[in-house]
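Backbone shape codes
____________________
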Amino acid sequence: MKVIICGAGQVGSNIARYLATEGNEVTVIDQRPDLVRKISDSLDVQAILGHASHPDVLDQAGAGDAEMIIAVTAADEVNMIACQVAHSLFNVPTKIARVRHQGYLHPMWANLFSREHLPIDVIISPEIEVARAVIRRLQVPGAMDVIPLANDKVRLIGVRCTENTPLVHTPIRQLTKLFPELNLVIVGIVRQDKAMVPTPEDQMLPGDEVYFVIDKEHTERGMVAFGHEEQEARRICILGGGNIGLFLAQQIEDKHLGMKVRVIENDRERAEFVSKSLDHAVVLHGDALDPDMLKEAAVEMAETVVAVTNDDETNILAALLAKRYGAKRTMALINKTSYHPLVGPLGIDVVVSPRAITVSNILQHVRKGRIHAVHSLHEGFGELIEADALETSPLVGKPLKDIKLPHGVLIGAVVRGGSVISPRGSTVMQAKDRIILFAAASAVKKVEKMFSVRLEYF
């Protein structure tokens, strides 16, 4: 597939890396010489210096026969115009744009991005997606990550193991015997910042980050099995009243989650705007790193403190201060991946990565075959994929124990007729089953083929 990526920042370079390693023909456009040089040196892609929305630059990038354009520059307007030019002049079939300014995304203006106006097929809003990701984590206390699948019938949950986790030092193959009624499959373990696809003989160790797929109805029992019996948070303190902080507070109010919210915002004008935009939340003007401000916000009473300012270092330090002053749980928004291995040992409970969330959103529109959702795990370690089994799929009609799955692929769950089936060796998959599986990065292309329609199907 021939893909043009506009923007060589963190998101653009990550998408380019994913697609280039899978053998796609990728061209990246950016107007910063240092980023163009860096991506050209590190990846097998064509890198072009220029303005991503200019017709001559898109023409040079090969827009005439490109199948997809992904516009993720820092400017919304450049992303939108790049898609418009790609559509009007080069007839590029699929156009994806990152749009951050909430004014463009109000439901009132939904018609803006139709084919007759600004023809963009997929709008990615990191701020909205990050806020939703935070809410999912709030609803499953103790989870580092929560991803809904198959219309939220199945969930991927990430947890961190400690010495007190009941399941540590237990071979994975014994989980079925210990919890025969629990629909839970462990699909990934991150140990000392190295990710691995577990075998039945592997054990979980203190300090491991464990990802498992589970029937939504069994979520609470699954969390108890990992030693998490915390109550859902009722008092939330949000540090930062930017787009993410405001949208998060609005979502909590709109969904009537029964949570009391306090917001700390450092800019007076923005604090007044946030206060007027919310019905019940208490908005405080001040510095999230000021101990007196944290006390005024009553962080010692908060079950969860969420640091979502636009500065990674502020988020890390504010979360650590909040923990020191008595907050039970902290989440920090962190863009720089180099910080991620540090924050767990420091005591921050959850890291929220806008880049990883944006990459996952884009990937599900890149994947081929009958694939409904894709979620990238742990910086490219692998992907959690949700797809429909077709009659022509090699997965259909045989017991799972007789199917030779590609190395690095684990079936996490099967959804059939609204029921969730935990896969066993005797499980026989049927056409139209919704399959939830994990695929290591090296196996993703093989999984795409398993869910592609073959010519003889027609």
